[in-house]
Automatic annotation (TrEMBL), chains A, B, C, D:
<dbReference type="Pfam" id="PF03860">
    <property type="entry name" value="Csp"/>
</dbReference>
<dbReference type="InterPro" id="IPR005560">
    <property type="entry name" value="Csp_YhjQ"/>
</dbReference>
<protein>
    <submittedName>
        <fullName>Four-helix bundle copper-binding protein</fullName>
    </submittedName>
</protein>
<dbReference type="InterPro" id="IPR044543">
    <property type="entry name" value="YHJQ-like"/>
</dbReference>
Length: 128, 128, 128, 128
């Protein structure tokens, strides 16, 4: 889809596509992990995990949308949001990582968060 | 991720995963198509397309989230939303389809909308 | 804001504004109620409530966006979404209503859901 | 609704409520302004405005959700997102401000963006 954009894109299209894919995968993993936590008998120990998952799902989803837009590009907006997104992915990866040995959904979600954090930081690095 | 949900899921997990994937792909295609339309010189002829893309992106994104939740399942909620989603996918597929010969992003987006509409109707059919 | 739209709007602007306000208020109430449920000691008894709140927040937020758009209006899209939204508001109002005597946030949220369901059905009635 | 949260909230509830209200108002103004721009004959001159509106609507909506959650509070997440949100509100306020003399929807939207930027920065200031 990125190849069909009719004007110039200010970022490397391959790297950009990788970040958008990671953001969408992380958003979906977090939505599913929040719900899986709600389905656990031990939900009372997972309330912080649910909350962080909900935040991460929202922020990754929004960041994917913003990065999917190229018209009237503003580097400050992309950069600020990528930084905020990396922060919430770190927070959610840490939280889910702490439950990974107990819950497979948290293990998978922590991996998605870490991959997404890396992708955001990689893009930030090339944006300078 | 669906396999890690700790309780019963009231729908076929393979079919459900296919619908969620189609919804996420359609939502992303619509977000990108809306922006690509804004980047065209002929944007004045594409304003309805932009609007329908924005609606379809929002509705597909929300439907993907709702279908990713299994705790406290309510078939009426899923069914109503799948019907609304199929309607907006039909509308957006028709609108983008009308520009498909001119704009590659509209052609790809129309395909994503039609695939998503089919996936929604397939799931509705097995829900009874 | 509705008064500044530069072309015709196919629905009564006063009624439309009332529905959009009700949708936004309901979406915010549901987001807050989901989190307040997570903060309760009895969260294990509130997992269905959290889930329904999350669905209702998403659907009301999306419906508010769709109804805030008038360019390229498609009555079928608005109608289908209003029906789906009324269904999820009913579901969430019932669920929160069941906890209203125990939790003030559920009582307030149930009221917001019922007001929103009424607003959706009122608009559907005049759409014919 | 904030008064019904069952545990401690790490931020001043009055100030927090003001920011959430500003975020929701700004998100709604931006969604409506994007669509009103699409309805203008001069849409070709407003494509950057539409895009910035869409970003600002998404980021403000997500920030409102994150700030509406208090369970498992992480100050780094709130702070990073408030900074990103202030940046996009500044960008959108400037863009809409440039069209304010021509389009009443842009004038109203620019005001909502500036009020929201101020509210985000005020909260950041007291978070230290």
């Amino acid at each position: 889809m990125l190849e069909t954009y009719p004007a110039e894109i200010n970022l490397d299209r391959v790297k950009l596509a990788a970040v958008i894919d990671a953001l969408i995968a992380c958003s979906e993993a977090c939505t599913a992990c929040a719900d899986a936590c709600l389905g656990e008998d031990s939900v009372a120990e997972l309330t912080k995990c649910v909350r962080t998952n909900l935040d991460c799902a929202d922020v990754c989803g929004t960041t994917a949308r913003v990065l999917s837009r190229h018209t009237g590009y503003d580097a400050n907006v992309s950069r600020g949001l990528l930084e905020a997104c990396a922060t919430v992915c770190r927070s959610c990866g840490d939280e889910c990582g702490g439950h990974a040995s107990m819950h497979e959904h948290c293990r998978i979600c922590a991996e998605a968060c870490r991959a997404c954090e890396r992708a955001c930081r990689d893009l930030l690095a090339v944006m300078g």
